Amino acid sequence: MYDITIVGAGVTGCAIARELSKYKLKTCVLEKEVDVASGTSKANSGIVHAGEDPVTGTLKAKLNVRGNELYDKLKEELDFPFKRNESLVLCFDKKDIHKLEEMRQRGLRNGVPDTMEILNREEVIKLEPNLSDKVVAALRLPTGGIVCPYELTIALAENACTNGVEFKFNTKVEGVDKRKNKYIIKTNKGEIETKIVINAAGLFADNLNNMVSKRKINIIPRKGEYCLFDKAVGSMASRTLFQLPTKMGKGVLVTPTVDGNLLIGPTSIEMDDKGNKDTTREGIDDVLEKAKLTIKEIPMKQVITSFTGLRAHEVDGDFIIGEVEDAKNFINAAGIESPGLTSAPAIAEMVSNIILEKLAPEKNDKFNPIRKAIPKFREMNNEDRKTLIAKDAAYGKIVCRCETVTEGEIVNAIKRPLGATTLDGIKRRTRAGMGRCQSGFCSTKLVDILVRELGISHTEVTKFGGKSNVLVGKPKDNI
What are the BFD-like [2Fe-2S]-binding domain coordinates in residue numbering (predicted)? Predict the structure, then answer.
């Protein structure tokens, strides 16, 4: 029997798992997909928010600011891409400049450091020369940042795993029963006994909560569509550019990614289907049209892909974190939408404190907070490259030309803790296939490497698990 079972291996679940690995607890994480970061955690803006936006007094406000504070230490320990590039909230009408001051004051009440400042047009243009002529002022937020959301999640999961947490993939929860002092979690792979359940199931956290509690929650998926641009135009914005919210909505953001691309989006459309991740012509057109308010010219020829993410919006609007009143030892971390990515480290602290009160576990004296990322060939100087190749010749073989990813990196991604087993798993760990050609040249080689390293057949290789097989057989087999 487990002490703790966490349902969901997104950024929230993995942050909680890593925090709990600091203690002598038998912990496992259940994930219905083939890999970590397979839901909302892989498809979002990648923004570490300063904390000026959430309503004062909410969990979103409190955990946003605390989470933001924790990122520098986390980056140092876990070696994932993170940068404090600052954020700007742009104002387009002089009549609305007072709203920037209101936002600054709210930030101060929320605990954002008193480094925020309101800039006039001339000051803003000096910082971001590609802004549109409609910009009249901006609120500058020095503590804002950008992060790679899936590399963060992978880093948290790997460190949790090396510190003793078990991960069970392709394991879907089908029911939860309370029996005396334990829970029986029914899955497609059998039953799991556990003292405590932590519900970090993202879009499906309401389903899990509603299995055990009369206090129902309701999560509505909010669809957000994005456009991703080539690195050639990544420098069009050096800071994350938000639009001042109006009666027409929050607008869209324009931001560099931590890997050097330009990202524009998202839309915000409430859906009925929690599996609908389709991109639409209408959605992409809407994103691009709204972005014209922020920057002078949209570099349409540099679009390399579009994608959709679904956010877990709970109807009451705030995070739901804590023990369920009528289900002892069932702990929710539900309704984690924006600023959920920023808040994840603080959510993990909050949930961990609940566990410490309940179980009073000993500290794990073998806990190692350090995790090293896969060496990135593209970021090395030639001397470091030569040294690496001398140790492993596979690092001298370029597989993905767009992103300069070597065979050595790909093999590393497969062999490390919770290693990649799919094309998307390799992509999220190494960026192989994320460049301008979108894996047009490297996908066949990636398939071959997966076959060789995992000891499987070509027809067993999938893009993202399940029935997403890349190949169905040899040509002659289908004649």
Answer: 398-450
Record the tokens describing residue 448, joined without a space. 């071959």
Active-site residue 458, yes or no? no
pLDDT digits (tens, 9 = 90+) for 225-267: 999 999 999 999 999 999 998 665 578 999 999 999 999 999 9
| Confidence category of residue 187, pLDDT binned at 50, 70, 90 | very high
Q: Say which of 49, 98, 313, 458 is annotated catalytic.
A: 49
CA dihedral 106, 110, 111, 115 (to 10 degrees): -30
> What is the average pLDDT score of the chain?
96
Size (the chain), residues: 479
Q: Is the distance from CB of 30 to CB of 198 less than 8 angstroms?
A: no
Contacts of 352 (CB under 8 A, 6+ apart): 16, 19, 20, 22
What distance in Å separates the CA atoms of residue 396 and residue 412, rounded to the nearest whole number?
A: 14
- Residue 156's H or E segment, with its range, is helix 149-162
User: Who contacts 476 (Cβ-Cβ below 8 Å, separation ≥6)?
Assistant: none
Helix or strand (DSSP H, E) at 179: strand 173-179
146: its two tokens = 């950008």
Cα distance between residue 31 and residue 28, in whole Å: 10
- The 8-class DSSP code of residue 469 comes to B
Residue type, 354: I
Q: How many CA atoms lie within 13 A of 221 on its CB side?
A: 20
- Which tens digits make up the pLDDT trace of 321-345? 999 999 999 999 999 999 999 999 9
CA distance 357 to 355: 5
pLDDT in tens, 116-166: 999 999 999 999 999 999 999 999 999 999 999 999 999 999 999 999 999
How far apart CA 166 and CA 157 sit, in angstroms, is 10
pLDDT at 479: 52
| 25: nearest Cα among 165, 162, 182 | 165
Which pair of structure tokens corresponds to residue 97? 């400049």
pTM, full prediction: 0.96
Q: What are phi and psi of 79, to 5 degrees?
A: 60, 55
**Residue 477 predicted with pLDDT over 80:** no
